[in-house]
Amino acid sequence: MTNLSIIDKLKRSKILDLLQEGKRIDDRALDEPRPLVIDTGVIPHANGSARARLGDTEVVSGIKVQPDKPFPDMGDKGIFICTAEILPLAHPSAETGPPQPNVIEIARVVDRGIRESGMIDLSQMVLQKDKSVIGVFADNVVTDHDGNLFDACSYAAVAAIITSKIPKWEMKDDKPVLIEDQASDTPITTIPISVTMGLMGEFIIVDPNLDEWECLDARITITTNSDGNIVALQKGGSDGFSLEQLVKCSELSIVVGKKIRDIIKQATEGSK
Amino acid sequence: MGGRETDVVLLDENGIRSDGRKVNETRKVTIKVGVLKNADGSAYIEFGGNKILAGVFGPRDVHPKHMSNPDTGILRVRYHMEPFSVSERKNPAPSRREIEISKVLKEALEPAVILEKFPRTAIDVYLEVLQADGGTRCAALDAASVALADAGIPMRDMVCSCAAGKAADALILDVNNEEDQAGQADMPIGYMPNLGKITLLQLDGVLTTDEFKKCIELGLEGCKQVYEIQKNALREKYFSSGDNN
What we know:
The complex is a heterodimer. Chain A has a single domain (about 5-270), classed as GHMP Kinase, N-terminal domain (Ribosomal Protein S5, domain 2). Chain A has 5 helices and 12 strands. Chain A has helices at about 5-20, 100-115, 150-160, 210-215, 245-270, and strands spanning about 35-40, 50-55, 55-70, 80-85, 125-130, 130-145, 165-170, 175-185, 195-200, 205, 220-225, 230-235. Chain A is elongated and about 70 Å long. Chain B is built from 4 helices and 9 strands. In chain B, a hairpin with a 2-residue loop joins strand 2 and strand 3. In chain B, helix 1 packs across helix 2 (about 135-150) and helix 2 packs parallel to helix 4 (about 210-240). Chain A: One of its GO terms (biological process) is rRNA catabolic process.
C-alpha cells in the first residue's frame, strides 16, 4: 500500500490494532460478510433486475436480452456481456468519463465468475447457428460505494439473471422477429457466488468495507459454484499471499459463499 | 474455460500433450537481457511461441505531475499486444482485457519493487507482445522482472511466473494456447521465491479445492524453473567473460 493518505494511515493502524484483538472496525467477525439485502424486479423495463445492498454498498443490476451476432468462434452459443459503472452520485471521489482500470477490473471479474461457472446455458440461446443468437447483457451500476464492489455487483447481477426472462424470437427472412408474450425462464445451471477477502498484516477479512478496503495490503476474489467448486479467481492489491493463506481463502470462499447463495436463492424464489 | 469444441487431443493415452510435453513440463523459455539501447533496462523473452519485449524507464519525472506521490515512487505498467501478434488482426487500441492485465501485472510487480526509495518519481514498464501463444501475461511478467533488475532498480525479489491448469481432466503445467481454448482451467501464477509470496493469481475454469491447492503447487514448481532461467539471463549479461558492460 503505497498510496495512502494521512487519514488512511491512521485508519490502518486503528484497524490493525483492532484486528490484533480479533475485532473489526464495524464489530463484525473476521469471516463475516455484511448483511446482504436483495430486491428483485426493481426495474420492470428490464428483462430481469435486482438491487443488492451489501452493508452500505448498493448496486442496481439490469438485464437486457436482445438478438445479436455470435462471437466469431462461438457460433453455437448465445452471448453474455457484463459491464460495471460507478455512478458519480455513489461517492465524492467518483468521476464521470471513460471507465478507469479499477472499474474495468470489476466488470471483468464479475463477468468471469458468471461465464466460467456456465451459469447461463448459452447453448440454448441460438436462433440460427453462426448467424443470430440471443445476447444477455448484465449492466451493473453502483449507486452507493462503501467498499467491495466486486461482490455487490456480482450478487446483484446473479440475482437479476436468476429472475430474468428470455423473450421468444423466430427467424423470418434471416431476421429475428419477436413473438409477443412468450417469454421463458432463463436456463440456469448453477449459482456462482464470489467472495472477496482482504489481507491486512497477517489477517484475512471477508467482505472489507470502504474503510478497510482503502488500506488493504492485498485482496482476492474467489467465485464458487453450487457444487462447491472454484470457478474463477482474481488477486489484486500491492502485496502477495502465501500458499497457506490462499488455501484458507479458498475454504472461506466456499463456507461464506454457501450462506450468500442461500440468501440469493431465497430472495429470488418468489419472482421466478 | 470456453470449453470450445476442438479436434485436438489435449492428452494422449501416454500422458503426452498436444505439443509433445509431459503434464509437468514447461515450454522452452529463453530470456535475453539488455536488448534495447534507449530503455534503462530491457529484456526479451521467448516462452514457447510467445515473443515479448519488456522495456523499463526510470525512476524518472512523473507526467502528468498530479500522479506523483511525495512519499513514494509509483510503478506504471502497460501491457500491449501488437495487431499482428494473433491470428486475426487485433485492433491496436488498448482493449479492456489489456487494461485489466496491465493493472494485474502492476500489482504483481509492486510487492517486489522498493518504490519508497524514489519519492516523486515513476518507474514505467512497457510490455509489448510481438507474438502471442497462450500465457502471455506470465511471460510478460517474467520479462518485466528481468528488465527491472537490468535497469538497476532495487527489488526485494524477482517475480517469476508460470501458469498451471487443467485439461482432459489432468492438472498441467504451463497452459498453451490450445489448452487455454479447449481446456478446463487456466491459472496464471506469479511468485517471489525468496519471500514465498504469490503476487499474481487469476483463474478461470472449474477446480475443486483439492485441485486448486495441487494446481498452485504445480504452478510454483514451474515458477521456480523460470526463476533459474531469469537469473541465468542476468548472469549472462553481467557476469559473462564477454565484453558486455
